[in-house]
Design goal:
The chain contains 15 helices and 17 strands. With about 400 residues, it is an alpha/beta fold. The protein has two domains: about 130 residues, Aspartate Aminotransferase, domain 1 (Alpha-Beta Complex), CATH 3.90.1150; about 260 residues, Aspartate Aminotransferase, domain 2 (3-Layer(aba) Sandwich). Strands 4-10-9-8-7-5-6 form a seven-stranded mixed sheet, sandwiched between helices. A four-stranded antiparallel sheet has the order 13-14-17-16, covered by helices on one side. The protein has a two-stranded antiparallel ribbon with strand order 1-2. Strand 8, helix 9 and strand 9 form a beta-alpha-beta unit. The longest helix is centred in the last third of the chain and has 20 residues. The chain is globular.
Length: about 400
């Protein structure tokens, strides 16, 4: 079946606009994806017709809202091939999911001297929660290095493991370099060492099929806004046996079985981790995004984005004074680059004046930047709607930067 990029782009209203007199080339999907009309309409319809709080009311609106909200969890279960519906915890995003594991499983299961292994290319959301845990209970963080090409080698992962290792946590895809890590193999190494494995799937979930049973991860998280859905919602997947050992993360309504001033008893997972009024409208949009992406097919999306990545890599690598950062053979939808004369922030500003939206900075991965000897990069990141024309606009604008800075 032909990948109909023209039809797909019509589904995204934001892409039809001009910026500073140029057609928008949106190349910042790695930060947050644009939203298709199906997501926008689903959220609007819900707020217009069915909105009420969930799990609390006996009136018709509350029942309708609850039914629509609860229909999202099995949809996510199927999307990532989780074995059980109750292995899906709805959170406010990937960052909260990582903190949830650190402050529940981590504080209960770990002690001073235990080790957590992570890689040098992690996003701050998968670094800072573990540093906070180190300050709280004295765990040790061990860092797997990254090669000059941006790869994480299995032998380096294995070298970082020890009898004290209790958790191995890593990004499935680097948000800076686009490197695809050998996730299944890393999980297997973690389990051989007697440790659990947590995968940050924020950058992989919209670019390729993610099967938690095939990966055999103990935990995995991602945010909906990377998957063409709304902000403010994401998930933590946890194996049923792992979630069962974890105490509540926050206290409040909806996560309790009963409350007295003497004691409180809690619901079983996943509900014990979902205190308070949830992001109801956002959950409806999340479900619509999953349906939208599933209808196109993640395998088809991956093929399209691989073609765009190859085209962009070839075009940018031909430009004098432009250097691509991260040249691993297995990459997904992201190119970071620097220029000899121009700072990434100047690159981003000039590109914006020509209608090209990219990201410039440290990309919430300052330890990786330090490891690479850089302060910042310019980053172009692609989505299911990215075209060769977008890449041509990027290349033309980068050439203009070269002309300006000589």
């Amino acid at each position: 079946m032909t990948y109909d990029i023209a039809r797909i782009r019509k589904d995204f209203p934001a892409l039809a606009q001009n910026i500073h007199g140029y057609s928008l080339a949106y190349l910042d999907t790695g930060a947050s994806a644009q939203k298709p009309r199906a997501v926008i309409d689903a959220m609007t319809r819900f707020m217009e017709r069915d909105y009420a709080n969930v799990h609390r009311g006996v009136h018709d609106l509350s029942q309708r809202a609850t039914d629509k909200y609860e229909a999202v969890r099995p949809l996510i279960q199927k999307f990532i091939n989780a074995e059980h519906e109750d292995e899906i915890v709805l959170t406010h995003g990937g960052t909260e999911s990582a903190n949830l594991v650190a402050q529940t499983w981590g504080r209960k299961s770990l002690k001073a001297g235990d080790e957590i292994v992570l890689t040098a290319l992690e996003h701050h959301a998968n670094i800072v929660p573990w540093q906070m845990l180190r300050e709280q209970i004295g765990v040790t963080l061990r860092i797997v290095p990254v090669t000059p090409q941006g790869e994480v080698r299995l032998e380096d992962v294995k070298a970082a493991l020890s009898p004290r290792t209790k958790l191995v946590t890593f990004a499935h895809v680097s948000n800076v370099l686009g490197t695809i890590l050998p996730a299944k193999e890393i999980v297997a190494l973690a389990h051989e060492a007697g440790a659990l494995a947590l995968i940050d799937a924020c950058q992989s979930i919209s670019h390729m099929p993610v099967d938690v049973r095939d990966l055999n991860a103990d935990f995995l998280f991602f945010s909906a806004h990377k998957l063409y859905g709304p902000t403010g919602i994401g998930i933590l997947y946890g194996k049923r046996e792992a979630l069962a050992t974890m105490p509540p993360y926050q206290g409040g309504g909806d996560m309790i079985s009963s409350v007295t001033f003497a004691e409180t008893t809690y619901k079983e997972p996943p509900h014990r981790f979902e205190a308070g009024t949830p992001p109801i409208t956002e959950a409806i949009g999340f479900g619509a995004a999953i349906n939208y992406v599933s209808a196109i097919g993640l395998s088809a999306i991956a093929r399209h984005e691989d073609e765009i990545l190859a085209y962009a890599s070839d075009k940018l690598s031909r430009l004098q004074g432009v250097h691509i950062i991260g040249t691993a053979p297995k990459k997904s939808g992201i190119i970071s680059f620097v220029m000899d004369q121009a700072h990434p922030h100047d690159i981003g500003t000039i590109l914006d004046r020509r209608g090209v939206a990219i990201r410039a900075g440290h990309h919430c991965a300052q330890p990786l930047m330090e490891h690479l000897g850089l302060v910042a990069t310019a980053r172009a990141s692609f989505g299911l709607y990215t075209t060769r024309e977008d890449i041509d606009a990027l290349v033309s604008a980068v050439e203009k930067v070269g002309e300006i800075f000589g």
